[in-house]
Amino acid sequence: MKKQRRNFSLVCLLLLSLGVSSFSIAESRAIDEDFFKSIRLEAEQSSPNAQYNLGLLYYWMNYYENAREWFEKAAEQGLAQAQFSLGVMYDQGRGVPQNDAKAFEWYEKAAQQGDVDAQLSLGVMYMIGQGVAQNKATAKELFKQACDNGDKTGCNNYRLLMNGLAE
Prior knowledge:
elongated
């Protein structure tokens, strides 16, 4: 199963690098029906990583309701990537009504676990006052956390706020 997870991750990275945002299982030779079934079986056995991976598959196939269902299951078990993904869905209104408060809630949970993407997204929400009272000091702290975790965008945003350029 570990080899299948690694293969799945490689397929996902390849698709992202090619700019593929949606595909069908039938069109993809890299993801066959047996592989999909094995991920689903593992997800149904409450594996948060498999639930998240299945959510990603559904998301990329534009089955957002199914994606949300599996992301929620993984997020409720504390998987930061799934929490961040739910934040994105609510932030963008994909498969759910757009809801800044829910996006904030999920980003915050993931950010508290050190998820860099969530720290950045939450920082932006604080910086512009999206779904939360504008607070540039908190935004700066979140960008610093992302920077400390090695994220260049976090470093750039932190420097902009430090130098007063994002006022």
